[in-house]
Amino acid sequence: FAFEKWESVAVVENPVAEAFHKVRRHEARDPLIVTGGRGQDHRSVVRFAQLAVLLGGGLQVSFDWLGNIDVGHRQRLAAANVDVFDVTSEQECAARLASAWIYVAPGATRGFPLFLARAMAVGLPCVVADNPHHRGVIRHGETGFLCRSERAMLERTATLLDNPGLRARIGAAARDEARRRFGENRFSASLLAAYAENALRMGITEMGEAYGSNH
User: Fold this and answer.
1) How remote is the C-alpha of 151 from its chain's centroid?
2) pLDDT in tens, 142-180
3) DSSP line for 100-167
4) pLDDT number for residue 212
5) If 0-12 CB within 10 Å is exposed, 13-18 middle and 19+ buried, where does residue 133 land?
């Protein structure tokens, strides 16, 4: 197949705005767990609602969903006592993330998990579903936790709720990783490097083709 002959190319990861890197972390007085998304991923909504029911029952744990979702999903979340905030700016999103204790990504994403990268940039410990997109961002046990089941996600989240030292350590490591990988300066440098590398490769290829046609 033709794609088997393709050469590897440089990949540039999405940047995260400075508002998320610079916002001051300040955990809310009572436990707050957040997630985010603007897609209509039914599984993510269902799993987050289930998590809210299981952890919210009898405990003073609040749950927020950041992002616009349709009426049906909004009603399901409301039934599980999840508040939905249609954040309209990066500053507002960063501020709401900054007061959370934990970020949870219970489902799959379409492409790069930008909300997860934003949560890391704010310094949140992250508990995420184990899938290829999340594995490309989270280092398990260092910058967050990858969970292969809903039970594992529930247990990791409960452990973080009970352990402020672990939350601080994982959150700090996540923030350092986000600055290194997703800072806007890093993005600009990576983009320029990718253009230069690809231009060089194309130039060498064109020179080789010209040489071959003359011999």
Assistant:
1) 20
2) 999 999 999 999 999 999 999 999 999 999 999 999 999
3) -SEEEE-S--SSS-HHHHHHHHHT--EEEE-SHHHHTT--BTTTBEEESSHHHHHHHHHHHHH-HHHH
4) 55
5) middle
The percent helix, strand, coil of the chain (3-state, each to 5) is: 55, 15, 35
Q: Which residues of 164-180 are buried (b: 16+ CB within 10 A; e: fewer)?
A: eeebeebbebbbebbbe
The C-alpha atoms of residue 180 and residue 159 are separated, in whole angstroms, by 27
Round to whole Å and give the CA distance between 123 and 22: 10
* Euclidean distance between CA atoms 200 and 194, whole angstroms: 10
Cβ(85)–Cβ(66) below 8 Å: yes
Contact criterion met (CB below 8 Å) for 77 and 65: yes
**What are the backbone angles phi and psi of residue 100, rounded to the nearest 5°?**
-80, 160
Average pLDDT over residues 96-125: 94
CA 87 to chain centre: 16
pLDDT confidence of residue 56:
83
Q: Which amino acid is at 85?
A: F
pLDDT tens readout for residues 42-70: 889 999 999 999 998 767 899 999 998 99
Reduce the DSSP state of residue 168 to 3 states and report it: helix
Residues 6+ apart with CB under 8 A from 45: 69, 73, 76, 77
Q: pLDDT tens digits for 182-200?
A: 986 644 444 334 344 444 5
